[in-house]
Amino acid sequence: MGELHHECGVAAIAHLDQEHGPPVAQTPRSPEHAARLIPRMLLDMQNRGQLAAGMTSYHPRRDAILETYKQLGTVAEAFRLNHRAKFESIMRGMDGPAAIGHVRYATCGGDQRSLAQPFERAHGRKSKWFAVAFNGQLTNFQELKEELLAQGDYHLKRDTDTEILMHSISYELQNEGPEIDWVGVFTRLSKRFDGAYNIVLLSATGQLIVARDPLGLRPLCVAREGSLFAAASESVPLSNLGFTRIESLPPGHLAVVDRHSVRVTRFAATPRRAHCFFEWIYFANVASTLDDCSVYLSRARLGRELARMEDVPRDAETIVVPVPDTAKGAADAMGFELNLPSVEGLMRNRYLGRTFIEGTADREAKVRLKYTPLPEVLSGKRVLLVEDSIVRSTTMRALVHEIRRRGGAREIHLRVACPPIIAPCFYGIDMSTRDELIAPQFADLPDGGLSEEAQNRLAQELGADSLRYLPVDAIARSIGLSPNHLCLACVTGRYPTPAGQRLYDLELEGSACHQNGAGGIRAYETPRRVEGTVSGD
User: Which of 287, 291, 317, 425 has its CA 20 to 30 A from that of 503?
Assistant: First the structure.
């Protein structure tokens, strides 16, 4: 949905002494310039966070062996990409053979620069001096926080799970010698952590650590070619650097990288896989391939699933219109299957700053700023409006109104390439509390879904002529993975980790108390943070 905010993205690069096949196209002219590839990689993941961007580089001959730079704004704003002299000035201070980077979006903690990542933990011993960047959410944040504070004189400056993560790693390093056993460190951490965590860590010894949680909730891609090793939250940053052999880091595995080698090792058992299906539906760049599944092809198959369900009368005045941009693949495939034109009846203003949009209080005013309906395309038409998801519904309600009022559409039939979202996410996507979601307010099926009658009632609420969601079983078919390899918690209410399920059960209890007049007091505390989240539509 256009109002959903993307997750965070992490990136890492390291120059190795030994070549591993032919060089990649973007090989830096010297090892010390490897760090300069990080802003380029982050730019290719701008879709995953627009609030802040940052990086930490390693250089053994610099007084500050680890140097961290981070600023608020987009990648271009943070690194001054449109001002060559200022960009060069920043990069001269950040040069080095290894670096990590991060793009951030968050719904809590505000927009302070101090919350931007990476976080650096300075120490007099190089082996215990590190910087870390994180994508995900520690579902048992509150328990970890209480455990940490019980250890003695720990103090938390930010109250986010990234800080908890940083201190947890520091705690595990206490009894490590100069040669850190990173597998042992992450094995111990995995026994305490519940939730989603992709981690890139850079040590002042020059070691780079890339780790993915045991369920693989968030995507993490790696590649090694020529003299470079790289990792990123999506495949696009790696392919745009020229890597051709890109793989997904297996869940429960980490890569330990230094100037001489890359060692990929399992650090935790993988009881099952639980890849977030929303990556394919919405978050990821349409050109990415995640866990061997193409994002574009998945969205096209979602559109074909919608086409198979279509029962609205079709004539020469019927058109398919995507809500830009993530629904376009589904809309095009749906139109092709139905022999209907898939046309751009809505234009999105891609150059309007996030701050400018968020500074507008009225929802309809935000929609008018962001989208322009084209009456020359929409006027008098029966419109099959394709959207990737509906969360809160406030944006969709305003959008339907604008398409009818300004665009002149005769009929608007909403087609959602996703099942109804009936439960919040506790793994890094801020999909609101259950009470704020629109679908549960209309749910009338035992599994929490919506019957055809309920979907029609919701359509009326949104001002549309009809509404159809995809069934849950269409998701796995479209992505090409077994349902057992996907996290479908937000559309089923069944969570892949104990802490996630516990939080949802408490959410249901809190919702019931609220409905029974308990003044809205909840019997639970959701995790603070979130370093990579989505706020619903």
Answer: 291
**CA pair distance 144, 169, nearest whole angstrom:** 12
CA distance 154 to 173: 15
Kindly give the interhelix angle for 295-309 and 328-338, rounded to the nearest 10 degrees.
40
CA distances (Å), origin 400, targets 214, 287, 323, 367, 396: 41, 29, 11, 10, 6
pLDDT of 73 higher than 60: yes
Residue 10: cis peptide before it, omega within 30 degrees of 0: no
Which residues sit opposite 58 in a β-bridge?
66, 98
Cβ density class 491-510: b for 16+ within 10 Å, e for less: bbbebbbebbbbbbeebeeb
Coil/strand/helix, residue 535: coil
**Do 459 and 404 form a contact (C-beta atoms < 8 A)?**
no
Residue 207 near residue 187, CB atoms below 8 Å: no
The residues, ordered by sequence, that sit 6+ positions from 358 with a Cβ below 8 Å of its Cβ are: none
Q: Which helix (H) or strand (E) holds 347?
A: strand 346-348
Q: Which amino acid is present at 270?
A: T
8 is catalytic: yes
DSSP string, 219-287: --EEEEEEEEEEEESSSHHHHHHT---EEEPPTTEEEEE-SS-EEEEE-S--S---EETHIIIIIS-TT
Q: Please, which residues have CB within 8 angstroms of residue 376's CB and are 6 or more apart in sequence?
A: none
**Which tens digits make up the pLDDT trace of 444-486?**
999 899 999 999 999 999 999 999 999 999 999 999 999 999 9
Token pair listed for 218: 């968030």
> CA angle, 9 as apex, 36 and 332 as ends, to 5°?
110
Give the burial class of 361: count Cβ atoms within 10 A of its Cβ; 0-12 exposed, 13-18 middle, 19 or more buried.
exposed
221 and 234 in contact (C-beta within 8 Å)? Answer: yes
Please name which of 49, 25, 29 lies closest in space to residue 106, comparing C-alpha atoms: 49
Question: Looking at 8, 221, 293, 490, which residue is catalytic?
Answer: 8
- Cis bond upstream, residue 118 (ω within 30): yes
pLDDT digits (tens, 9 = 90+) for 232-243: 999 999 999 999
pTM of the model: 0.91
Phi, psi dihedral angles at 433 (to 5 degrees): -85, 165
Q: How far apart are CA 41 and CA 32, in angstroms?
A: 17
Q: How far is 315 from 377, CA to CA, in rounded Å?
A: 15
Are 428 and 7 spatial neighbours (Cβ–Cβ below 8 Å)? yes
Who's near 441: CB < 8 A, 6+ residues apart? none
**Encoding tokens for residue 164?**
């908890």
